[in-house]
Write a structure and sequence with these properties.
Distance between the termini: 34 Å
Shape: globular
Bound molecules: guanosine-5'-monophosphate
Number of strands: 5
Order of helices and strands: HEEEHEE
Number of helices: 2
Amino acid sequence: MGNIFQKIIDREIPATIVYEDDQALAFKDINPGAPFHVLVIPKQAIANVGAMTAADEQIVGHCLLVCQKVAAEAGLTDYRVVSNNGEGAGQSVFHLHFHVLGGRPLKWPPG
Ligand code: 5GP
């Protein structure tokens, strides 16, 4: 029993997976906010950045390298990596994830 991303890790629900290794998974967002919108998650259950501990440093750094990899493989040089922390910041799934968005001009701040 877990959240929707744990079910994707466990292959209980389908997703378009673009990268996987022993520590991380990357798959297309079901409701893309840009032509390229991939979510990168650790396989380890961490709710969000606010729930990280020092023990999570390596896995989170690894996830950022996976963000770099999936963006590079898509031919993107300009892209955004963002992680929403808490409902008030737009977090809806409480399993740490990095959104990788690209393929269109991205304005800042996002609003
Ligand atoms: P958050 O709002 O927590 O920052 O981001 C959660 C993201 O997960 C959203 O962009 C949403 O579209 C995506 N999402 C929610 N449920 C699913 C799902 O079942 N499959 C996939 N591929 N993405 C999902």
